[in-house]
Predict the structure of Sugar phosphate isomerase/epimerase.
Amino acid sequence: MVKVGLQLYTVREAMERDFEGTLRKVAGLGYQGVEFAGFYGRTPEQVKAILEETGLVALGAHTSYGRLLHALDEEIAFNKAIGNRYLIFPYLEEKDRERWEEVIEDMKRIGQKCVDAGMVLFYHNHEFELTEELDGQPVLEAIFAKIPPELIQMELDSCWVSYAGFDPLEYISRYSGRLLLLHLKDMVIKTDGTAETVELGQGEVAIKDVADAAISAGVEWLVVEQDHCAGDALESIKTSMDWVRDYGNQGGRINV
């Protein structure tokens, strides 16, 4: 059965103030795993200890392009020590988007090193990989056409697919079998056309349909994320977990 995790970027300010205490609160809300976005100066031993205490699973770690490129051995060692096998390419700066072919070759090399170490490399999208093109197709599609599945898997951010004007259900179906992680995120479109992420069920994304499709496609983890919270982030993730529980109670094939 699919599991539910939290991308810790959502509660980054709380993590900065109280790393261990925040993870205890996340576990107390019912999240089964966490996706790291930095370790706030903790050692692998400290991270592993709080995971063991709370019962949280390290489901993945967003790791910058620079770290993947220049400090991969260190990142692999750290993540292995905390029990995480999934390294996730989280974002590409604008200066690097002018050389997609080189970036893709870097991804292949990083992916192979991950395979050799018993790890898995993922790519996490925003909207620009769908609005920008490479070889006459959205960059996201080009990445996964040019790199074989054994070297890179997909973490689809369904919210940003929607914001870019594409159908997340179509992408979920297309990459079934290569899509182990999915960011479950809701948003509203403001009057200036920009997106504001909100708690699950509070926005415009058909998140129930997205969750249904992702589970049918065999995802391992639905990962709740809210890029920016208008109020207290811990209250926001509680509201989103309330939606998840309600979804599960209506037959959503999750158990939290």
